[in-house]
Amino acid sequence: MVKIELFEVDHWILSRSSTTVKHNLAHSYCLPRSIRDLQQLAGDSDAATEAFSQVLSKALDYGPMKGSERLRSKISKGYLTGSSSDLSIENIITTPGASLANFLVIFALLGPGDHVIVQYPTYQQLYSLPKSLGIDVSLWETKKDEGWKLDLEQLKGLIRPNTKMIIINNPQNPTGAIITKSTLEAIVDVARDHSITIFSDEVYRPLFHSISPTDPEYPPSILSMGYENTIATSSLSKAYSLAGLRVGWIASHSSKVIDLCVNARSYALITVSQIDEYLASFTLSPSVGQGLIERNDTLAKRNLYLVQSFIDKNSSACEWVRPVGGPIGFIRFTRSGKPVDDLELCTALLQKRGVLLVPGRKCFGDGVNFSGYVRLGFGGDTGELEVALDALQLFLQEDYSDVPLSTGP
Ligand SMILES: Cc1ncc(COP(=O)(O)O)c(C=O)c1O
């Protein structure tokens, strides 16, 4: 039996009683939308209704083995660079969400005896899954005091003769930090020198609320960096606010990578629900997709301002590196300069004020860096966020002094 570690974030959220949770700031996606919202974004309601009626008469066979061609064609447009190396739809396969996309990439391409380097902190799946499959994992650590920036010299020092993959997450969960264009270029140079594949989980793309596309450091997808040994995964869950649709994808310029993932996909699911793919394809039509991203960008900016104001007001108790992408941030809580116990903080906050946050040390590893850290999701409704921040403020005023300091490393 494969020994698999507890998936801490999901376990933490699932095991909190829904009756205690009044203000959920533990989520990492933007305000979920309905099919009706999508119809409205399409503008022309007759055309939208006509488009939806097509799904009623669709014969529900398995569908194409790599996923709906219409959907893959729309996904490919998200990687357009205007160069000859644009992505063909043959180099994209659909999956139910980015979770399964990540699973298939790791499962299909790696095995015992391989070594991978994983940006850290990050989504637990990206380092725990390879570990459970007997793959050697080195964590490429980043620190708050260095703005969560990746250190290229550290990367070079981690490379071994059997290093097969560098795994990055851009924008990054839980910090909302991004890997800038120049850092991506430097990672590609190192990977190319050693023929290492770069796998980038880009599930929060293209929600870059705090960097303009005209900024020279605006991060392109890893697939646009002119290196064939690259893989990107993504989905409609976060930036497109449709986690319930369960549609994601794997994209790579390497046909060999895609073939291996298609084969692994056959063992796990055969194909994705055609109805989900149909809705996903509708979502990625220009007016709907663009409309969703614009709405969520505006929402993230507005909500980020509220969280930043809260942090500024309480600067003796909390601090963060202001996130640049994705609707999440990693806040460090201290008292008299020492980190509080984040698990105790989250537990007491939930019990007393009904606010659900994610404890950093528990859910993002036992690393020395994460005592006192919590992940806060700010992609939800603005009014609800305001109420949640008021509840958090009351907690700081009335209950915070009872939270024990961290005894961790
Ligand atoms: C970095 C990262 N990758 C993948 C996923 C899974 O997303 P999906 O809902 O598309 O399966 C998450 C979900 O939180 C995530 O944070």
Outline the structure in words.
This protein has helices at 8-14, 35-41, 45-56, 69-77, 97-109, 125-132, 152-158, 181-193, 255-268, 274-283, 286-313, 342-353, 360-363, 382-398; strands at 23-24, 92-95, 115-120, 136-141, 163-169, 197-201, 230-235, 248-252, 318-320, 328-335, 338-339, 355-356, 358-359, 373-377. With 409 residues, it is of the alpha/beta class. Strands 2-8-7-6-5-3-4 form a seven-stranded mixed β-sheet, sandwiched between helices. Strands 9, 10, 11, 13 and 14 form a five-stranded antiparallel β-sheet that branches. The chain has a two-stranded parallel sheet with strand order 1-12. A hairpin with a 2-residue loop joins strand 10 (328-335) and strand 11 (338-339). Helix 4 packs parallel to helix 10. The structure holds pyridoxal-5'-phosphate. Pfam families: Aminotran_1_2 (PF00155).
